[in-house]
Amino acid sequence: MQALQVLKFAIKSKGTLSFTQGMTQEEQFEYLESQTNDIYAVPSDMRAYVKSLKSFKMFVTYDT
């Protein structure tokens, strides 16, 4: 909760929030490309990947 308040204060006082401050444009592109590659990478062991999907349980709750 305290981290959220610090974040809100930083946004209100400076007007912006930058997660890439201090990085060059090339470093930003490299970071984004590495994240994209991880997301769209084809698993090397398909059976292990399918097994991991089956073991994942998602619980969704709805407030009424």
Characterize the structure shown.
The chain has helices at residues 2-14, 25-40, 46-55. The chain has 64 residues and is mainly alpha-helical. It has one domain (2-60).
What does the secondary structure layout of this molecule look like, with pairings?
Blueprint: H1 2-14, H2 25-40, H3 46-55
Question: What's the short story on this structure?
Answer:
This protein has 64 residues and is mostly helical.
Q: What structural category arises from helix and sheet content?
A: mainly alpha
> How many beta strands in the DSSP annotation?
0
Largest sheet, strands/sense/barrel: none
Task: Give the helix tally.
Answer: 3
Structurally, how many domains make up the residues? 1
Unreliable sequence segments = none
Q: Could you state the order of secondary-structure elements as H and E?
A: HHH
- Through-space gap between termini: 25 Å
Shape: flat
Helix content: 55-70%
Key words describing this protein structure:
0% strand; 64 residues; mainly alpha; flat
